[in-house]
Amino acid sequence: MVRISSQQIFSGGINRMQDINSDLVKTQQQISTGKKVNKPSDDPVAAARILKLDQNLSRVETYQRNADLADNRLKQEESALSSAIDIIQRVRELTVQAGNGSLSANDRKSISSELKERLGQLADVANTRDASGEYIFSGFQGGSPAFVKEDGAWTYNGDEGQRVLEIDDGVTVPISDHGKGIFGNVPATVSMKETTSANGFIAGLSVQNESALQAAFDSVAPNVPNDLTVSVVNAAGELSITANGGALDLTPTPIPSVGDTFQVAGIEMTVTDAAYDAVAGTGDSFTIGINDKQSIFGTIENLIAGLDNISKDSPKGNAEYDALISESLANLDNGQESILLKQTEIGGRMNAVESTSAFLEDSALYTKEIRSQLQDVDYAEAISNLSFQSFVLQAAQQSFAQISRLSLFDRL
């Protein structure tokens, strides 16, 4: 026979109501927060998985912000380069216009005036800033303008650093390019650099065969063409053509003379009005730049200086002016090509960012779905449980109230 004291009855009833009330409060909390797991003790296994999913989602969101930043920076750079292309195209149109033989000196100065404006616009583009105020073409020196005007010429003021962002685990993308590589180190066409001649000049200087030019230097310095030196070597006006500081003799056969149009290493030229000093035993010489680099700014500056200063009142002046126009057009084309190549590269980066962003978006969506399954409450089920638990609690309270009034004295 089991004896149950009144104390046991009271304790058991109270404990039962507390348990039911605890379940009721838990269900109410789930409904109010919308979460099944509000603390680790609710479901330790689910809580651990939710924590890991939250960490993964935080990582993905960080990469998404980086991808958005990379996309914005690359779009801004691409837009700036598009503006630069437009400016260079206008400069090219003006250069073609300047090549019109019927233009007067005032016409050329008028073109020069607009070129100065276009040069300033190009500098503004090259000094584009991002949303934080940093210059996007200055490398790591974002606080300093990429190009500054010193002694009347625009020079590069940044460094050659390239910024990168990590947009996924092990996936980085460059988000900047230094202006020196885009606007500065542009291959220059062959051109006259120096001469010892007072009256002589080289006319019709142009590359006719790029392969022949390269092949001429491969035996001495592969892929590194150097300057050509053209010299008058005797009173008959015969010429010698050497390269790489005289280490390479490129004089063709038959030996050309002053006034002849000839080709050497794929380059066509005509040496005009050059002379030989029999007393001194030396002749006029000309240095032709082969593998030089020139900034787009330098190309436009040289064009402006030529339009302002070259006189077309002599055969030499006419030859210098014609060379200025042809060389400027070739160098502007090289500048455009340099920018277009960079735009193509940026387009590839933007595609990589776009595909990575899509992957991150899918990953975030998948992570959120799994977390929702573990964490989010089923309101229909929770409300049903709340109603049932409320009913059970009321029944327990009524039952306890009935039992608590029972005692031996009620039967006496």
From the structure above, extract its key features.
five-stranded antiparallel beta sheet, f41 fragment of flagellin, N-terminal domain, 8 helices, three-stranded antiparallel beta sheet, rod-shaped, single chain, alpha+beta, 412 residues, secreted
Care to describe what's here?
The chain is α+β, with helices and mostly antiparallel strands and 412 residues long. The protein has helices spanning 6-33, 44-98, 105-126, 179-184, 210-218, 296-309, 315-375, 379-404, and strands at residues 147-150, 153-156, 164-168, 171-174, 186-187, 191-195, 201-207, 228-232, 239-243, 248-249, 261-264, 267-272, 276-277, 282-283, 285-289, 293-294. The longest helix is centred in the last third of the chain and has 61 residues, at 315-375. The strands form six sheets. Strands 6-15-8-9-10 form a five-stranded antiparallel sheet, with no helix packed on it. A three-stranded antiparallel sheet has the order 7-12-11. A two-stranded antiparallel sheet has the order 1-2. The chain is rod-shaped. The mean pLDDT is 84. It has three domains: 1-34 and 392-412; 36-187 and 293-376, f41 fragment of flagellin, N-terminal domain (Up-down Bundle), CATH 1.20.1330; 189-291, no CATH class. It is 54% helix and 16% strand. It has eight helices and 16 strands. It holds the Pfam family Flagellin_N. It is found in: Bacterial flagellum; Secreted.
Topology:
Layout (H helix, E strand, L loop, with lengths): L5 H28 L10 H55 L6 H22 L20 E4 L2 E4 L7 E5 L2 E4 L4 H6 L1 E2 L3 E5 L5 E7 L2 H9 L9 E5 L6 E5 L4 E2 L11 E4 L2 E6 L3 E2 L4 E2 L1 E5 L3 E2 L1 H14 L5 H61 L3 H26 L8
Antiparallel strand pairs: 1-2, 3-4, 5-16, 6-15, 7-12, 8-9, 8-15, 9-10, 11-12, 13-14
Family: Belongs to the bacterial flagellin family.
InterPro entries: Flagell_FlgL, Flagellin, Flagellin_C, Flagellin_N
Keywords: Bacterial flagellum, Cell projection, Cilium, Flagellum, Secreted
